[in-house]
Amino acid sequence: MKEHEYYMELALEEARRAYKKGEVPVGAVLVIDGEVVAKAHNTREHNQQALNHAELLVIKEACEKIGFWRLDNSFLYTTVEPCVMCSGGIVQARVENVIFGAADSKYGCCGSCFNLVNTKKFNHRANVISGILEEECSTLMKDFFKELREKK
Questions:
Q1: Phi, psi dihedral angles at 2 (to 5 degrees)
Q2: Annotation says 96 is catalytic
Q3: Which of the following is catalytic: 14, 55, 81, 96?
Q4: pLDDT tens-digit series, residues 125-136
Q5: How many CB atoms lie within 10 A of CB 30?
Q6: For labelling alongside 79, which of 89, 102, 119, 134 has CA 20 to 30 A away?
Q7: Are 12 and 140 in contact (CB under 8 A)?
Q8: Percentage helix, strand, coil, to 5, in the chain?
Q9: What integer pLDDT is reported at residue 152 of this predicted model?
Q10: How far apart are CA 82 and CA 93, in angstroms?
Q11: DSSP of 77-100, one letter per residue?
């Protein structure tokens, strides 16, 4: 399998697409058996749909492509630590590995605020790796919100 940095760079490309559209710049890539199955970025503002987070979009696309709701042997790469909603989707889809770039101290549910993907109360737990291309992921978010504040 290719290095985590390779797939995180693909997720960053998706996040940059979101940024250009005025969306919160989060990108995600789902990989199974070393093959990219799905890529997505946030489209919540464009579609006025609260559920259109990159992680949920990539899970939905991957399930449609493989024709099964269980994402066994999968690696979900996302530029920012998944929120509670996305973490719930990760558990429900049985994503095995979550790799993220920047931690989210306000909403992150893979260890920052709560560790939803690893609670023993559920029958599925995901392996989590954090900090992959962290500086690039974090800088993209900071630049986006700085630019947004300056526009106001």
A1: -65, 165
A2: no
A3: 55
A4: 999 999 999 999
A5: 30
A6: 119
A7: yes
A8: 40, 20, 35
A9: 74
A10: 14
A11: EEEE---HHHHHHHHHTT--EEEE
